Amino acid sequence: MLYYPFMRRAFCAGVILAALLAVLGVFVVLRKMAFFADGIAHASLSGAAAGLLFSMDPMFTALISAIIFAAVIYFLERRLGVSSDSSIGIIFAFGMALGVFLISRRPGYQPELISFLFGNILAIRNSDLLLIAVLGVVILVFIFRNLRALTLMSLDNELAHSGGVRVEPLRLAMNIFLACAVVLGIRILGVVLVSALLIIPVSSAKLVAGGFKQLILISVIFSEAALLSGLTVSYAMDIPAGPAIVLAGSVFFALSGLFSAGSGSVKRAAGGN
Amino acid sequence: MKTRTPAIEISGLNVRFNSLSILRDINFKLEPGEIVAVIGPNGAGKTTLFRAILGLIPFDGSIRVLGSPTKKALGQLGYVPQRFSFDRSFPLRVREFLSLSLRGPDTGLIERSLSDTEMLGRKDSLIGSLSGGQLQRVLMARALMGSPDILLLDEPTAGVDLEGESGFYDIIKKQNASRGVTSLVITHEINMVYKYATRVICLNRDIYCHGTPKESITRELLSRLYGKDVVMRGHSH
Known about the structure:
The complex is a heterodimer of chains A (273) and B (237). Chain A is mainly alpha-helical and 273 residues long. Chain A has one domain (5-261): ABC transporter involved in vitamin B12 uptake, BtuC. Chain A is built from 14 helices and no strands. Chain A is globular and about 55 Å long. Residues 269-273 of chain A have low confidence and may be disordered. By secondary structure, chain B is α/β, with parallel strands linked by helices. Chain B has a single domain (8-226), classed as Rossmann fold, CATH 3.40.50. In chain B, strands 6-7-8-3-9-10 form a six-stranded mixed β-sheet, with helices on both faces. Chain B has a four-stranded antiparallel β-sheet with strand order 2-1-4-5. In chain B, helix 4 crosses helix 5. The radius of gyration of chain B is 18 Å and the shape is globular. In chain B, 42% of the residues are buried. Classes of the chains: A mainly alpha (273), B alpha/beta (237).
């Protein structure tokens, strides 16, 4: 399977993205930001459509639009006092509407658009792989350098502030990096399914992890396992990669649930004392 | 004679949300080593006062902590919030939670602060498995980790049983006696105010009283403060 260059690129990109989305997913779940990730993924359709319309790299333009939308959501919440749900809902709908409007200006069938919606491992070029690797490393370094502050902020803004954390810049940076990671993940999973890799591995790990470090580690393991088994099944059965990865992740979630429900749950045994 | 810098000095503090005035012309000082209670009905602006001291909200007037603006003195403040709501299914152990507030490697600080709050035995427990009272002690341990000069405690024993409440105030008293820690405590427990506080501030948007509990807390004052007749037992004047 790795004989083909496109599969090698897909595996390399997938391994980086699986780790990145799993680590970010810990904060997405802790801060209940699943709708933010979904909203940014859908809104970035406008960026991709603009790229196609003006003959630019759609991934690059989607990335720019996602960063702008993440900043706009932050300012709607913090400066205008619009609730988080409403801010994301507005940007979600606006971005999708703008995307459809821009697409309608370009005549004919749009294969790039379909791969943007549902993901396409064949679409990963060397330049995409480089962008995923560079941005992925930058975001992971940011997270691990600010791990304590990010975790405290995700638990409680006031506690973080009283502990000397500069909450607002950190929150804005986190929103922007999350938006970037979501757009990177769209290449493989598509707009519709990208948030699955943010949510499912962490939710599975929560059921069995006995501490915070374990949670991060097990989330990454589940995410990589879902990615690798999904890509393998996708190649073997000739089915789209995105759904195969999400279905594999769902199987791991079900297995974690069964394990947790059983008497040997690491978490309950350790936490009840 | 050299005068000591007040632990907290508030002058002309006004806080407004849109057109609503939450705190009006608040002025008071906390001297180092005092334990001062803030009492008042719900919606009186007590938590807003703390949020202003912590620099979490905009305000008019001046707040100085140990002679400096809050931003510069944040490291000298230990804060215990009224509520700490989080996903209780999240696998975070007590020592992991406390390590989030460390600024460097742990040099026994976590164990010491847990020992000070009698929670050492729960250091490996998941925070989601703790009772309300235990969680407040962990938050107290977190506040003590930075060896603060001042503690801000916002109804730290709300929902805690009498024994737990008394134990919690004993920790405040012990910190005060051993390290001279100044405490500003929001509470509804008048008995605790009499037992532990050196002074009391009665707040309902404005300051209604300010002095020692014995001098300040009268039935008339409480009735005026809370807007209804209050029966006092065991503390007649």
